[in-house]
Amino acid sequence: MTTDGLDDQVIGVLGGTGAQGRGLALRLAQGGMSVVLGSRDAGRAGEAAAALHPAVTGTDNASCAEQATIVIVAVPYEGHRELLAELEPQLRGKIVVDCVNPLGFDKQGPFPIRVPDRSACEEAAAILTESTVVGAFHNVSAVILLDESIESVGSDVLVLGEDREAVDTIIALTARIAGARGVFGGRLRNAFQVEALTANLIAINRRYKTHASISITGV
Ligand SMILES: NC(=O)c1ccc[n+]([C@@H]2O[C@H](COP(=O)([O-])OP(=O)(O)OC[C@H]3O[C@@H](n4cnc5c(N)ncnc54)[C@H](OP(=O)(O)O)[C@@H]3O)[C@@H](O)[C@H]2O)c1
After folding, report:
1. Ligand 1 mutation pick, 37, 61, 63, 75, max ligand atoms within 8 A of CB
2. 45 CA closest ligand 1 atom index
3. What is the percentage of the chain residues whose pLDDT exceeds 90?
């Protein structure tokens, strides 16, 4: 039993068969959370879950959104708008955590894509008017999350949102990941540069052959 109030929460991960979704699921399950992976294919989610941790199960995205009390969105930006519009009813009344980075890649490397609502987080908030959207986990590397030889992920996580209570809940959830610390990063109108910053981190990774993340000093 912990004192963060999260013991009864069930964490859903839409697109949970991908590297980021599996990585977050693994670390949250290791931190004592129950996690449901969602996929367009329930069987694929079941297989991914079975390979991760006993506290992780898998199902289709709609059942995942229904079963979970806090839902993380971990699909590529290309599928973001359509998936959230489809699951809007199941996501009502819940905290939806968006970690989607709209990025492009060309010969010169990674770069942020300009999206109609400025950021994936603001797009989510525009679609999910009955949910509480929080941005988090944009700058945490899936490679680090999935590498069980690394005990502490050693990263700060900028948590963005309009609702202080929901932001505090996700800061507490971040603390369930060994070596991660949530730091309030502003309202959703500040999500663009957090999503875009991942392009800088990927450029760093390529140059220095590493998996960089962020660290905030002064707090
Ligand atoms: N990888 C990282 O290190 C990292 C770090 C921070 C943030 N992120 C963000 O996290 C998100 C997921 O990253 P990822 O690397 O895990 O991506 P990914 O492996 O390409 O995709 C994740 C999952 O999304 C589902 N999916 C793919 N296309 C879809 C579509 N059009 N509509 C609905 N679902 C779709 C797939 O699951 P099914 O086929 O099983 O449905 C896939 O396994 C991205 O938005 C990325 O920007 C990634």
Report:
1. 75
2. 40
3. 99
